[in-house]
Every structure is written in C-alpha cells, then in structure tokens.
Amino acid sequence: MSYKNSEKLYKKGQKHLVGAVNSPVRAFASVGGNPLFIESAKGTKITDVDGNKYIDLVLSYGPMILGHRNKKVEKAIKKALKNGYTFGASTKNEIKLAKIVCDAFPGMDKVRFVSSGTEAVLSALRLARAYTGKDKIIKFSGCYHGHSDALLVAAGSGLATLSIPGSKGVPKGAVKNTLIAEYNNLESVKKHIENHKDIAAIIIEPVGGNMGVVIPQDGFLNELKELAKANDILLIADEVMTGFRSKFGGAQELFNVEADITCLGKVIGGGFPVGAYGARNEIMEMVAPLGGMYQAGTLSGNPIAMASGIATLLELKEQNPYGKFNEIGEEIENYLLKSAKKYNVDLVVNRYGSMINPFFTSKKVTDFKSAQTSDTSKFGVFFWEMIRNGVFLPPSQFEAWFLSSELSDKDLEKIEKAIDKAMCSVSGNL
Ligand SMILES: *Cc1c(COP(=O)(O)O)cnc(C)c1O
Questions:
Q1: Annotation says 346 is catalytic
Q2: Pairing outcome for strands 110-114 and 136-140
Q3: What residues make up the domain containing 381?
Q4: Average pLDDT for 214-219
Q5: Which of 318, 345, 362 is the endpoint of a domain?
Q6: Which residues carry this modification: N6-(pyridoxal phosphate)lysine (predicted)?
Q7: pTM for this structure?
Q8: How far apart are alpha carbons 178 and 49 in whole angstroms?
C-alpha cells in the first residue's frame, strides 16, 4: 500500500492551511503518521488519493449513516440545485424538515435550523439563559458540545474541575459560569445545585460520544431530569451525535427521557451543514422574531442542505436500520472481545446503536476518567494495522466508530479479518 499522494498533499497543504486540515480531529496527531487525503466515496467505501479503498467507519464523524451517495439523497440534492442555492428567504422544505424533526422528538414543538452543531448548542444555552433568567450551566467532564467559548472546558484536562479553559484564547469570564460535573455521577450535579442558586441549564450528551462511547447508567438520565425539574433548571440534550442514531427519536426515545431543549446536527443534514435546536412552544417563543433572544444565520435552512436532510431522514425512517445496527454492532463487539482474548490484550468495548468504541484497558469505562485509562499507544498500533487492512477508523481513541446501514456481510468479514490482524499487532505478535 502506498500513501505517496497523501504525503505529497500533506506537505503542500501545510503552506496555506493550518496543519493541512480544517478540523483538528482530522490530523493524525495521536496515532502518528500523515493524514490521508480522500478522493471519493460510495456506499460503505471511501477511496484515498493513492487509490486505496477502505471500509469507512468514520462516515464524516456520523452524518453518512446511510453510507455515501445514497441514491435517493443524491437525487433530492440534484433536484434542489436546479432551483438555486440560497435565497435569504423561507422555503417549503424548511417547514417539511421541521415537521419530521418535531414529530421525532416529543418535547419539541418548534425548531430553529442553524448550520452546525456548535451553533445549535451555543444558541440552546443562550435560550436556556433567556428563559430562566439565570446564568450558570452545568456540563459534564469529557462531553464535547462544539467549540464555543463557554463550553470549551473539561473537554479533556485534569484542570477541568477548576473551570480553567481547555483552550488558549478563552477568557476567564467566558467560562466563569460553566460548572463541571462527572458523567454517571448524580452527586456531582447535586453538589453544584446546592452551592449555586443561579443555574439555568444542565447540558449533556445523553450517550457520551466524544470521550469514546460512554453509556448512561440505569436511571441516570431520568434522575438528572427530575433533579433539573425540581430546581427550575432546563435539561439540554445535546443529540448532535446521537440523534436518529439508535432510534429515530435519538437517545431520548431509547432511554425514555424528555429534555427541555434538544440540539441536533450531523445526521440531520445528511452530509451538508445543518444543526438545529428545538423545544416546546413556551421556550421557543423566546427566540427572535417571536421573542427577545436573538439568533440568526445567513445560510440557515439552506435549500440544498434541507433537501439532503429531508431525503436522509425519510430514507432512515423507511429503512429503519436500527435493528440491523444492533446486530452488526453486537457482532463487531463480540469479535473485538474474542480477538482481544485470543491475543491476550486488555480490552473493553462500549456500544450504542451505530456507535462503537474499543478501549485498551481492563477498567470499565463509565466516565471521562475511566476512558483515559485506555492505552492510546496501543490504539495507534491498532489504527494503522486497520488502515493497512482496508478499514478507515477515526484517528483517535476517543472518537466513536460509526456504522452505516449499507454494511454488508462481506464488509463485516473484511472488518473482522482486519481486527484479527490489528489485535495481533497490538499484542506484538505480528
Ligand atoms: C459534533 C458535535 C458537536 C459539534 O458539531 P459541529 O457540527 O462539529 O459544530 C456538538 N455536540 C456533539 C455531541 C457533537 O458530537
């Protein structure tokens, strides 16, 4: 396998792009080597600029849940293109996508479309503050909610609990209202509520996806909701990653919990930039033009993106791949564990619908701290052996692998063969 063309582009790209990437997760910083440059993708496969073909378990970090270039989605996009790209005025399809989304989430009467997950979440926070008249928020260590200032804390450091910014350039003032709790630990939330009277919202990934996959323990989300309600705090479910993923109604449907505000992204645009936040009427009526909370966007509700989102969600509804995701996920999980046992490698696997994550540790992974017990150097070895055997994974221990509804038995066989080789390689036996 040659990566010559990728290497060339990587060198060339560094002149005018920062690290030759437009999002740091695409750099191969934690696995070593150069990032791959992609030429094209179709179905379950992605092809790099050297002509190497991989089964794609990155799927653009989630959006391509139907696989690449689904026929119906592509047809809808082409049709939309013919009518023009953007108008700065409303279109019929915005209403159509709004209905599909509001029908999927019982706590959502109205929705506002934006252009990214980051934008959805930062707007949801502003809305929670506008509605409650309070300033503070609670977020969980290890949860990622986009790159807005107030939320760039505890996305990965031991300084997190002190609310010290996790990124340079974030002023102290921007995070002074951000309180950090521990995932799956209700007591850590209660403590903040006892100590602070002015908490507007608790924001959570209902299934953690940005510290590797971390599942909420039995009752955690429901108890969180009760706690929030009893203290006039809004619960914000950041379902940018989990929305439409294990159930059409996201993690909230699966765990039977209803958030006050829901944030969406990724799948909702089917590969185009769409984010959304929604809630019941009395909350959404705070948003301009109905209310005094301002939020706007030149390309919000973009016609091409709306067409792609509608076609993707309708196709998801029709295919209803959620049973299949569970079956494939379970098979990959079992195979990973079997293979780890065969080569005597410590491994824990977490899984939620079409998201799956192996951690190279013997500890149960239930929060950010336990996720960090994973041996990332082993992951680096595993990652490259998977690449050499034709499976494209996210280049980080702490990113979920994503499954598409197009995965075939043949793909699965190939994935399992690659896992066997990669695990062997991790154990030092290859
Ligand atoms: C990806 C993600 C975001 C940010 O979305 P962008 O479209 O990258 O801005 C926010 N929250 C969660 C849970 C995510 O997974």
A1: no
A2: unpaired
A3: 4-65+321-426
A4: 96
A5: 318
A6: 266
A7: 0.96
A8: 43
